[in-house]
């Protein structure tokens, strides 16, 4: 059974609650070598709050922060999608190294698709799914996304960080 995770939308919190969550994000850690696949979690959350097209979320499990992810509108081409607007871009996704391998990544990726569908229903952006790019040499990332129902849409060579797989999940 997949574990329960909650996505906490930082954009919707008041300043105090946001600060508490950002403090927890600052404690998240990656395993050695994983920095090549994703940025610093606190910086990504702060950048997400600055940019109106991004919605940064803290992944919470068992009552504490376990990771982060961001949904972005109007940017799907960054993952090798043919247009920017028909899909949400999922980016900046990580689970703390001490809690990896417990199904949280898979559960959080599924929750991100559900959250994106709700955003589209609320905001009317017309997206029909979620797209992301994952490094070809990142089997943990690919595995978590496949288990969450994403489908491999092929090779994407447009990233500065090497060959990627474009993966898509419809709502
Ligand atoms: C990618 C990441 C979010 C996955 O999170 P996770 O909580 O460890 O993933 P899950 O436990 O849900 O694993 C789901 C599936 O992924 C696969 N998987 C997980 N870790 C793996 C590894 N080290 N090697 C190969 N496959 C792996 C497995 O198929 C697993 O299913 P299983 O439990 O039935 O074996 C996490 O490894 C991470 O934060 N990595 C660093 C940042 C990163 O790479 N982000 C993605 C950028 S696109």
TrEMBL record:
Keywords per UniProt: Transferase
Segments forming domain N-acetyltransferase: 8-171
Signal peptide: none
Keyword check for Transferase: yes
Protein source organism: Arthrobacter globiformis (strain ATCC 8010 / DSM 20124 / JCM 1332 / NBRC 12137 / NCIMB 8907 / NRRL B-2979 / 168)
Keyword Lyase applies: no
Recorded GO MF terms: acyltransferase activity, transferring groups other than amino-acyl groups
Annotated PROSITE patterns: GNAT
Gene3D superfamilies: 3.40.630.30
Full protein name: Putative acetyltransferase
InterPro entries membership: Acyl_CoA_acyltransferase, GNAT_dom
């Amino acid at each position: 059974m997949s574990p329960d995770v909650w996505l906490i939308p930082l954009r919707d919190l008041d300043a105090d609650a946001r600060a508490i969550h950002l403090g927890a994000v600052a404690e998240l850690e990656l395993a050695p070598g994983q920095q090549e696949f994703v940025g610093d979690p606190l910086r990504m959350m702060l950048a997400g709050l600055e940019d109106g097209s991004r919605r940064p979320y803290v992944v919470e499990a068992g009552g504490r922060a376990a990771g982060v992810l961001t949904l972005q509108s109007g940017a799907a081409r960054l993952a090798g999608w043919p247009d920017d607007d028909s899909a949400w871009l999922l980016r900046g996704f990580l689970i703390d190294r001490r809690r990896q391998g417990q199904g949280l990544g898979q559960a959080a990726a599924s929750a991100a698709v559900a959250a994106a569908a709700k955003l589209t229903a609320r905001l009317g952006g017309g997206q029909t799914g979620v797209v992301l790019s994952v490094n070809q040499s990142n089997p943990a990332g690919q595995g978590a996304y496949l288990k969450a129902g994403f489908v491999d849409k092929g090779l994407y060579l447009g990233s500065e960080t090497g060959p990627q797989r474009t993966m898509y999940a419809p709502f």
